[in-house]
Model the fold of this input.
Amino acid sequence: MSEGDGDGGVDPDVEHEVWRQLLFWAGLAALVAAVAVLVVHTRLLVVPAVASLALLAGLVLLVRPGPVGPVVLGVAAPLLVVADAPALVDDLAHPDTFATFFPAAVAVVAGIVGAVGLVGFLRRWPVRAAGLTGVLSAAVVLVALAVGLVATVGAGSDVPRQGDLAVTVADGAWVPDRLTALASGDVAVYVTNDDLRRHTFTIDELGVDLEVPAGVSRRVAFTARPGTYELRSTVRADDLTGTLVVP
Done:
């Protein structure tokens, strides 16, 4: 057997099958992560939607002999990470919102495994390399699971105070979408997030940018002169619009 043909005594077809199985699990994980993003955001996002279709096609093609299925999965999974990198990095930076943090972590791991799996499949790397890749990726996913759960459970809510303006984010909208302060000067807002994804309470003109994880409430105090200010969220795919009126 020539160098690079794989493990000694291992049938090359077996090696190929092991890498195909690894690509199957990477593709399935990436597909679940992409679909989870669509479900959590309750809207059509181009990158996860296109990636879902490509990954689904790759999984279907994988049942056929030949390299087409593995190549599609080995390309689609990493491309999801590359194309959606800014949003994934943002979600990974906020483990206190499990519904977006964990799918992002799974997508990144699946993308890396997909790339490694494709190279291993095409170059017929040894079976032990596939096994090591699978074990390491599973370990990383388990760590991400633990980090996300601990951070999300530990994300407690602030305590409201008398005189706070109250606003809730529900189904991707401010409720109410118009807040009126009692007077100019010191203003405090108590923001409750009833969605599965995190949002921010942002007023650019006043330098207010409050992170509000999913399922918790946060309080922010600031100084405002008389005027009408736009409320928004800086998180991906948010189109929250509202106003703060300061008399």
Observations:
- Residues 1-6 have pLDDT under 50 and may be disordered.
- The first helix runs from residue 12 to 41.
- The chain has two domains: 12-153, 165-246.
- The radius of gyration is 23 Å.
